[in-house]
Design brief:
Order of helices and strands of chain A: HHHHHHHHH
Number of helices of chain A: 9
Oligomer: homodimer
Helix content of chain A: over 70%
Strand content of chain A: under 5%
Shape of chain A: elongated
Largest sheet of chain A: none
CATH architecture of chain A: Orthogonal Bundle
CATH class of chain A: Mainly Alpha
CATH topology of chain A: Tetracycline Repressor, domain 2
Radius of gyration of chain A: 18 Å
Number of domains of chain A: 1
Distance between the termini of chain A: 57 Å
Chain lengths: ~180, ~180
DNA sequence: GTCTATAAAGCGATAGAC
DNA sequence: GTCTATCGCTTTATAGAC
């Protein structure tokens, strides 16, 4: 069938979806072709180094999205408590109350961790650094450790919500974090 | 080379190690053969249904280990706070301060979740049920929700410790849980 | 930039000798 | 219970026509 000309940026969302839903090893090029609506030739035209380059590009895009929509607002907040609350709201939507997983967290637990180690650690380091700012502003003791705890709680809530197939569990975790640290 | 007769139970540890380190999709039968020191014929003799049966058996073995060494002590504890503390110590060793991951948590984030859904959810449900007992005994408010939070924190600590390659992060999380709920 | 055809390797799984 | 050989299929990746 005739196919319209695609832009590389159009592939990012379907690519991310497949990696999120199947993991790095579980995502095959065939799946990635089907999701993007492109043949192998087209996909390899955009990503000459193949699957690894697709995943790296997806990670970079998510990292950028978080930088703009999560990290930057945290760093530049005027009201610390309000900023952390806004982050929790934003993440609840982004992660679909735990129905969607964090692609960085997923990769951290898999065997592809080593290949993407710097992207994964860079992402979490930036998150911790950013979250520390409003926590300190809000007068929280040991803001860096608390930032780590909050991020770990969010990642754990995703794991548990998915394991038990219970989105309410994720939402409860967000409520608890809010009450405990910023209300 | 001549090979000594193997027992099926001898395969469980190497099998578990490969699944933990490579994920379900990432673990190939060749790897599983090499880790167990058995040829494909031998491995399929023990596990006629192949890789899926190997993983299911590994999960059942871990479930059994947790039942005996973690869940049962929690349920039958006389001192609630002491029992939760003992669990945290035990898990710190079991998970090697986050250097080792939880195979159930890993599967929950991957695409094999659906295939092993009941094993995964059963494991976490038993854990929550068991942990609720000593928490209630210790006078903690809303012990079931707190049990869920603690387990999520542990899973999240594994994710974050692995993402940042920092075992101290896991240990700090265990210390925080102890301080917050059972000291 | 798109596609189809194809290559080479690895996959999970099986058969059958010992 | 162990092994080797092999099957059929899918994998990632490439080549080359359009």
């Amino acid at each position: 069938m005739a196919r319209t000309v695609a832009d590389k940026s159009d592939t990012l969302e379907p690519l991310a979806r497949v990696f999120r839903e199947h993991g790095y090893e579980g995502a095959s090029v065939s799946m990635l072709c089907e999701a993007t609506g492109l043949g192998k030739g087209s996909l390899y035209h955009f990503y000459p180094k193949g699957k690894a380059e697709m995943a790296a590009t997806v990670l970079a895009a998510w990292d950028g999205w978080f930088e703009t929509n999560v990290f930057l607002p945290l760093r530049s907040a005027e009201d610390g408590k309000q900023a952390v609350g806004a982050m929790l709201d934003s993440l609840t939507e982004t992660y679909r109350s735990g129905r969607r997983i964090c692609i960085f967290g997923m990769l951290a637990l898999g065997s592809a961790r080593d290949e993407f180690a710097s992207a994964i650690s860079g992402y979490f380091e930036k998150w911790i650094d950013a979250l520390e700012v409003p926590l300190e502003q809000a007068g929280v003791d040991d803001p860096r450790v608390v930032a780590q705890e909050i991020i770990a709680s969010i990642q754990g809530a995703i794991v548990l919500a998915r394991a038990l197939d219970d989105a309410e569990l994720f939402n409860n975790a967000m409520v608890r974090i809010r009450k405990q640290y910023v209300s």
